[in-house]
Amino acid sequence: MKDNSSRFSFKRLFYFIRVEMREESKTWLVVLGVLSAVAGFLTLISNFDNSSSSSFLLGFFIPSLLISGSIYASTAFGYMHKKSSVHQWFALPVNDFEKFLGLLISTLIIWPLILLFLFSTLLNLVELLNLALRGSHNGFFNPLDPAIWYGYLAYLIIHPIYFAGGAFFKRLSWLFTSLCGVGFSALFTFFFSLSSAGVAFSFLKNDFFIEKLFSLVLSPATFNLQTDSLQFFSGGVTTVIIMLKIFAFFLFPVGLWVFSYLCVKEKEVKNAI
Question: Is the pLDDT of residue 232 over 90?
Answer without folding.
Answer: no
